[in-house]
Design goal:
about 450 residues, alpha/beta, Rossmann fold, 18 helices, elongated
């Protein structure tokens, strides 16, 4: 099949490359000339393990190409995917659909023959019907269908998620559109991966409901962690005991400094707004948003306590700034709340991140960037683990402590333990939901 993918951001690029690996003829479209030029030269604008290799192989096979010309991209296409950004709108928390509707109108003006317009972007319930209205208004004679096909890609594991998904969700109104979508996903259908075919509104809601539920799970265990610190319980053991219950499961039960990234903050905010607009308040989701903000602020107080009540004049080594490992994405990362508080309090912050340096330089001014954890920790008063990159999971803690002026650690990902820190020579160690060293 011939597919056009509008937008070469994270979702659009990963989806386009993977569809081409299915054997489809895919043209990725973007208005950013520099981005298209980089992609044509095999340069990936994002960090995603395995994506560069997969892109190169499909370009070489002649199945994947890039262009700024929308009309040529959709000529002969049976489906065109809208995979543009839907950022949180300032002021009201709603998803900004400006780019989605602009893409819909451009598709309508460029198309001549029947095609299925597929919304891949995360959009509020009712958006696909509005997309259809925009297309009809711009080109009343066009024969088309709309479909909703939300993505469920984890950054850092997106290719595996696309090729071996838990499920594919497709919202359609006609059998004709359903057949086109089935053809697109035939490689997955033939391998018995679940494909949920439903109506437009249900498909749109599935995406928001899934992300809000996962955000709730993370926030719940973070609240439990706070209570564990007060009662002497160990959140790791609590998480293990909970996760072994098949009705709960062990995923997303790891205490940390709060969720971030491109999806959970945006989607929980949008779902809360949808509920308000329909006079059906999402009370749990609204509480999740509030508690997640509180969790990040609570991390700052943990660090302040380790610095005897003041950051002023302290050197702090921060290990990891991206919202999770195996990505360069810093959107709503805890580091964007915690590091400015350190700097604002007078600390000298030295940071290291395998992929976040480039993005971090623009988002985190007054931060000194180091090549590795040991360089960052040299003469430091405190080391903070913010992102659980593999290289931070196997540190030589004795070496780290010996390099520091005051060997203290805030392990905000629970990688190590109080015993590990004590044996390595740290004078103080705190984590989340577990006993500190020395005991308070």
């Amino acid at each position: 099949m011939r597919i056009a993918m509008i937008g070469t951001g994270y979702v659009g690029l990963v989806s386009g490359v993977c569809f081409s690996d299915f054997g489809h003829d895919v043209v990725c479209v973007d208005k950013d000339a520099s981005k298209i030029e980089r992609l044509e030269n095999g340069q990936i604008p994002i960090y995603e393990p395995g994506l560069e290799r997969l892109l190169a192989s499909n370009v070489a096979a002649g199945r994947l190409s890039f262009t700024q010309d929308l009309k040529s991209a959709i000529a002969g296409a049976e489906a065109v995917f809208i995979a543009v950004g839907t950022p949180t709108r300032r002021g009201d928390g709603h998803a900004d659909l400006t780019y989605v509707m602009a893409a819909a109108e451009e598709i309508a003006r460029a198309a001549d023959d029947y095609l299925v317009v597929v919304t891949k972007s995360t959009v509020p319930v009712g958006t696909n019907r509005e997309v259809a209205r925009v297309i009809r208004a711009a080109n009343p004679d066009l024969d088309f269908d709309v479909a909703s096909n939300p993505e469920f890609l984890r950054e850092g594991a997106a290719i595996d998620d696309f090729m071996r998904p838990d499920r594919v969700v497709v919202g359609v109104e006609t059998d004709r559109a359903a057949e086109v979508m089935e053809d697109i996903y035939r490689p997955l259908f033939l391998r018995d991966f679940p494909i949920v075919t439903t109506d437009l509104e249900s498909a749109e809601m599935i995406k928001y409901a899934a992300n809000a539920f996962l955000a709730t799970k993370i926030t719940f265990i973070n609240e439990i962690a706070a209570l564990c610190e007060k009662t002497g319980a160990d959140v790791r053991e609590v998480s293990k005991g909970m996760g072994l219950d098949g009705r709960i499961g062990n995923k997303f039960l790891h205490a940390g400094p709060g969720y971030g990234g491109s999806c959970f903050p945006k989607d929980t905010s949008a779902l809360a707004r949808i509920g308000q607009e329909h006079a059906s308040p999402m009370v749990i989701t609204e509480a999740v948003i509030q508690v997640n903000d509180t969790v990040k602020r609570r991390m700052i107080e943990k660090l302040r306590d380790l610095c005897e009540g003041s950051f002023n004049g302290k050197k702090v080594a921060v290990l990891g700034v991206t919202f999770k490992p195996n990505t360069d994405d810093m959107r709503d990362a805890p580091s964007l709340t915690i590091i400015p508080a350190l700097v604002g309090g007078g600390a000298k912050v030295h940071a290291v991140d395998p992929q976040g340096h480039r993005e971090g330089e623009g988002l985190l001014p007054h931060v000194n960037w180091e090549a590795d954890a040991y360089a960052a920790a040299t003469d430091a008063d405190l080391v903070v683990i913010l992102t659980e990159w593999n290289e931070f999971r196997a540190l030589d803690l004795s070496r780290l402590a010996a390099l520091m002026a005051t060997p203290k650690m805030a392990d905000l990902r629970n990688i190590y333990s109080a015993d590990d820190a004590s044996e390595a020579g740290f004078k103080a160690y705190v984590s989340i939901g577990r006993r500190p060293y020395p005991d308070a």
